[in-house]
Amino acid sequence: MGAAISVGLTLAVIWFLEKMTGTSMVARPIVVSSVIGLLLGDVTTGVMIGASLELIFMGAIQIGGAVPPDPLFGAALGTAFAILTGEGIEVALALALPIAILAQSLKVVIFIIRSWFMDYAVKMAKEANIKGLITLNLGGLIMQCVIYFIVGFTAITFGSAAVQVFVDNIPVVIMSGLKVAGGLLPAVGFALLLRPMMNKGNFLYFLLGFILVAYMALPMLAITIIGVVLSFIIVFEKNDVQGVLAGNAADDEMEGLFDE
Amino acid sequence: MSNKVKSTKEDKKMFRELFFNSFVLEASYNYERQQSLGFAVGMWPAIKRFYKTKEERAEALERHLAIFNITPHLAPTVTGVATAMEEKASQDASFDRGAINSIKVGLMGPLSGIGDSIFWGTLRVITVGIGVSLAKDGNILGPLLFLLLYNIPHLLVRYYGLVFGYKFGTSLISSASESGLITKMSKAATIVGLTVIGAMTASMVRMKTALSGNFGGVEFELQTYLDQIFPLLLPLAYTLFMFWLLKKNQKPTMLLFTTIAIGIAGVLIGVL
What we know:
The complex is a heterodimer of chains A (about 260) and B (about 270).
Chain A: H1 2-20, H2 29-39, H3 43-56, H4 71-84, H5 89-126, H6 130-168, H7 172-184, H8 186-194, H9 203-214, H10 220-248, H11 252-258
Helix pairs in contact in A: 1-2, 1-4, 1-6, 2-3, 2-4, 3-4, 3-5, 4-5, 4-6, 5-6, 5-7, 10-11
Chain B: H1 9-21, H2 36-50, H3 54-63, H4 75-91, H5 98-135, H6 141-178, H7 181-204, E1 212-215, E2 218-221, H8 222-229, H9 233-247, H10 252-269
Antiparallel strand pairs in B: 1-2
Helix pairs in contact in B: 1-2, 1-6, 2-3, 2-4, 4-5, 4-6, 5-6, 5-7
């Protein structure tokens, strides 16, 4: 009971904070799992599960209207079940993904319900009713948080026993397979991040970052600075050099060639 | 639109109000109008300042209820631009108010391109890397440091983006767009983002083969040879394979389950 309330409240409060602070990343697994660990009395395990799940859900970010699997639910419930059953990271991992995918449809439903609110919003705007608009905006968020509490509370109350039976029956080979999969899953996340950014023309920059770690084991900050310097040279400096050259060779015939 | 370079006391008060109102952008995110309700609420301090009649305020609020969507951290920059245009509109009756929404729509795409690369692709990836390196040993500083490192630039961009958007208004942003500055910034952000994601892929994706053979009494471990030729070749190959599948329009969910299946199957047959 206490655990169910803790998990339900964590879901509701964290989502409320995330959307009241302009998407400040408090709903990411690394934070959510740590909070769940803290509330359920095993901070260390919570934080460690958070680290693994954060990498797995690397690509689960909402860009535009497309709703990805929900890392908040996956992390909160996956971590809670792992701690409550006394099992480790592999169990959290096995449960977090299917849960995140189920929660994805919950979010879709909420986005549809709130679309109906927009008629009221337009009516209120026509009357310059700002108090009404602020209330409606917050009301939409609070409705979502209440639903999150109910779903989280119910899942822990009725799900724990079933999850325990399920976990007790997972064969050893599946568990070690899940461990291997845990190392592989961030690849999906990174691929998702790369999809809108990478093409044939800029693949080499990705490769460069990879090589700097694979062969040279440089720290992240060093690689970031290299990336910034490189981008400056390529995007700004190089064009200026062309401009300077065009200026030096300032005869009329050449000008047309270098002008952009 | 405003050519004042120095902010008056009243300007600063408005910036503060707009800044604090900007956080609820996505409280009621929905399919029909996406972030518009939050955006309209966020514009109120400016609308209240520049329009005095109920009719004008209503018209402005309704204008900002038009569908809107952007990387949340860059929304205040657009709020700043829209504020400058609303100010102009309140002073000049002949000002084409329809232009306000066209400018907003025009900024959505390019600014989101930059914002997604910088915030989702670069800043988040770096700060997650730092946070996870501590958190994987169970250190509570991991999540705390992650939140701190992510949100300092987040808050700075929120506030100064707003001030920048207002001060330089549409003139500079549209001339930046014409001179190709926005395209250049977007390209630069992509280069940094790709380099960082490449580095993170190398440090975070784990894949080793357990394949080994015995040829004439000589023990042969494939992984040892791979490490000498191209360390981390397998994680690179697997990430690019996932990328390729996404390009072929495979669903992310399908990739997640395929990966789990590969992990289990790999252990079963002794390859991984």
